[in-house]
Amino acid sequence: MGWYLRKSFGLGPLRLNLSKSGLGASVGVRGARIGIGPRGNYVRLGRGGLYYQRYFRTAQETSRPASPIVEPALASPAAQIVTADVSQLKDSTAETLLQELTEKHNQPRMAPIFAFAFVIATVLMLSVHLSIWIMLLFAGLFIYAHAELVRSDQEKKVTVLNYGLDNEAKSRYVGFLKVLQSFADSARMWRVDSEEFSRDVKYTAGAKRLMNRRPISLRLAAPEYVETNLAVWKLALGTQDLYFFPDRVLVYDGSRVGAVSYNNLTIGLDQVRFFESDGIPSDSQVLGHTWQYVNKKGGPDRRFAHNPEIPIVQYAELWIHSSSGMNFVMQCSSPAKAAEFQAGVEVYAAKH
């Protein structure tokens, strides 16, 4: 409702009304009229050029909800980053070792089976109310037998890898371990599982390339059932684990084992701008900021009440490849440490 000035042209009880909104028509007596206009049906009261007017919305207009802002399909179907099955990761110099590791890893463990049988036997003996001394004797025999089975299981499943490195080889490996230690000190690492491309960057903070990733870790750890006299770093990638030994990288996928020689290993490196919504790592550089929803000019889209600011962070992106089919994509929060890792692998591989 409101007050305004208007002009009209009378044709008896019918009048044509002219205003800024357009042309309308009304019928009635002086000072009281009912009409239709560009903005709908109305009643108007007043005289002398000063009028009061009220519009009446139709039921359809009143109940019609506001048009929601509908987000389109944000991205094309995700493309999975596929790596070779460990059975395809063969090193001709490690065939015997891989066979031994796989066979021993798959050896059944008898100690858990024996422990389950002991529980069943104990329940049966309790049901017949045997003497407490017989029960204690039985428990003692079980403890001894179980300990022997655990030792036997360990001997059957463990592979011993002892390295006798000369001074030069030892020095190279120690230097390589320091490179891995520095890389492990990165605040955060991720494995990129798949990539997709945005169909409308207005809804993806302006990002054209989208990633599905998971946190990963690099730490000192030898493979299960492997005993070695040297330190070994483990890169845990989720589905597969990489172990950096002096002579090769062992790749574990559950109980299956593959191998890649260092001279068959390639590390690619690039620096990327990443729109980080999961906290900023302590060793990363913030290049700028964007918003979750952006307009055509790259600024915040004001149609969205909740439109948080997102930092743009510089990360390193690494590709780990081998000619036998290994294919991993990683991100590292520290481009400097990632570059040191790439260079360290290249130097170590060149001397193999």
Would you mind describing this structure in some detail?
- There is one protein chain.
- The protein is of the alpha+beta class.
- The chain folds into 3 domains: about 1-65, no CATH class; about 80-100 and about 165-350, no CATH class; about 110-155.
- It contains 6 helices and 21 strands.
- The protein has helices at about 60-65, 95-105, 110-125, 130-155, 165-185, 335-350; strands spanning about 1-5, 5-10, 15-20, 20-30, 30-35, 40-45, 50-55, 80, 160, 190-195, 210-215, 215-220, 225-230, 235, 240-245, 250-255, 255-260, 265-275, 285-290, 310-320, 325-330.
- A 7-stranded antiparallel β-sheet has the order 1-7-6-5-4-3-2, with no helix packed on it. Strands 8, 10, 11, 18, 19, 20 and 21 form a 7-stranded antiparallel β-sheet that branches. Strands 12-14-15-16-17 form a 5-stranded antiparallel β-sheet, with helices on both faces.
- Strand 3 (about 15-20) and strand 4 (about 20-30) form a beta hairpin.
- Helix 3 (about 110-125) runs antiparallel to helix 4 (about 130-155) and helix 5 (about 165-185) runs antiparallel to helix 6 (about 335-350).
- Residues about 60-75 have low confidence and may be disordered.
